[in-house]
Amino acid sequence: MVEVQNVTKRYGNKTVLNDVSLKVHKGSLTSLIGPNGAGKSTLLSIMSRLIPADSGEVTIDGKALKAYGSNELAKKLSFLKQSNHVNLRLTVRDLVSFGRFPYSQGRLSTADWEAVDRAIASMELDDMQHKFLDQLSGGQRQRAFIAMVVAQDTDYILLDEPLNNLDMKHSVQIMKMLRRLVEESGKGIVIVMHDINFASHYSDHVVAFREGCVLYDGKTDEVIEQSALREVFGMDIQIGCVCDQRVCVYFT
What we know:
Blueprint lengths: L1 E10 L2 E11 L3 E6 L6 H8 L7 E6 L2 E2 L5 H7 E4 L11 H6 L3 H4 L5 H13 L15 H15 L3 E5 L7 H18 L2 E5 L3 H7 L2 E6 L2 E7 H4 L2 H8 L4 E5 L2 E5 L3
Helix pairs in contact: 5-6
C-alpha cells in the first residue's frame, strides 16, 4: 500500500496541497479527478519523489519514501509525467527498453527483452517499434511512453493524464490494459483523469480534489454522484445509465 499522510505543498504564498491524505492499494485502480490547478499532478510528483513535500509523509508498503534507494524505488513504483520530452533521438524500442534499467543497468537479458516485447505489443506498437520518436504522432509517442512504464513492471504505477493526445480507440485500449494489470497482476494504479466517464467506468476508487484539498475519497459509485460532482467542479452534471454503466453528461 502507498499511504499519503497529511501532505502539504506550498509555492510562495500559494498552497497547492493542503493536508492531503489518501491510500492506494495493490489490486485497485484509483482515479484522481478535479479542476485544473487542484493539486493532482503535484501530488503524483511528491508520491514519486520528484519534488519534496513541505510537510507530511509518503510510505510505500510501510517504508518511508525517503528511505528508499533510487534503484529500489524504481523497482517498486513507476511514474509517467503529463509532458515527456527526450532530447536523444531514440526508436520506440530503445525508449521502452529504458523501463528495464532498474533490473538490467543497461545490459538487458533475454527476460528483459521479452518484457519489452510484451509492453510494445500491449500498446499495439509492433509495426512502428523501430521508428524514431520524432517520426511519430503525439498519440503514438504517448503510447510509447506508457509502454516504457509497463515494461518497468512495478507494483505501483502513477500516470498523469495518460490519455493526452489519444483518440477514442487507443484511450479505451489503454484503460482496458490498465484494468488487466490491476486484475491479473495485482498492480496498484493511480491516474490523474479529466474525463470523468473514463474514471466512472474503469476505476475502483475515485479521489476528488478542489483547491488543494480532498473533497471526496471513496468507491467510484460514491464519488461519481451528482451532488459530489457539483461541489468538485462547480457545475451541474447529469448522471444517466447506459449499458448498466453510469454516464456523466456535462456539456448541456
